[in-house]
Structure formats: C-alpha cells, structure tokens
C-alpha cells in the first residue's frame, strides 16, 4: 500500500487521483531499484561494515526525495493546464 498526501495533491479530486497512482508507480519502481542497488552494494561492502548501512540509507533517502520531487513536478504541470 502506498499513499501520497501533500497540499498540492489535495487541491482537487483530479490531482489527488493522479498523485496517488503516479507516486505508487514510482514507489514500486524505486523499490525494485533499491533491491538491485542493495544487492550490488552487498557485493562491495560486507554487511558487518557500517559503510554498507550508510550507503543504503543515503540511497533510500535520495530515492524518496526523487519520488516526491518528480510527483510534485507532474502535479504542478497538471494543475497549470
């Protein structure tokens, strides 16, 4: 389950529906990419290494910021039409 709730996405029903479906698709894609990246990072950094956790955490934060920015950009373009 996923949900996307921001001030812009709650502006009207059309933006809400678009934001929910678009963000959900991006989150699934990012989840798959995170699994792949996590596997590749495990090859280079042993799990007991604290650098592994740092790299994974930075990647997850970056990917969530990417989803937020891209969804807000699309909502803004849709709202301007």
Automatic annotation (TrEMBL):
The keyword Membrane appears for this protein: yes
Record's keyword annotation contains Transmembrane: yes
The entry's keywords: Membrane, Transmembrane, Transmembrane helix
Domain of life the protein comes from: Bacteria
Transmembrane segments: 21-45, 51-71
Protein name according to UniProt: SdpI/YhfL protein family protein
High-level lineage: Bacteria, Bacillati, Bacillota, Bacilli, Bacillales
């Amino acid at each position: 389950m996923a949900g996307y709730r921001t001030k812009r996405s709650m502006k009207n029903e059309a933006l809400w529906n678009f934001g929910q479906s678009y963000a959900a698709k991006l989150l699934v894609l990012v989840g798959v990419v995170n699994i792949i990246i996590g596997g590749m990072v495990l090859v280079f950094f042993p799990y007991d290494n604290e650098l592994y956790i740092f790299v994974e955490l930075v990647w997850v934060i970056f990917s969530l910021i990417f989803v937020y920015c891209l969804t807000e950009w699309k909502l803004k373009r849709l709202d301007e039409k």
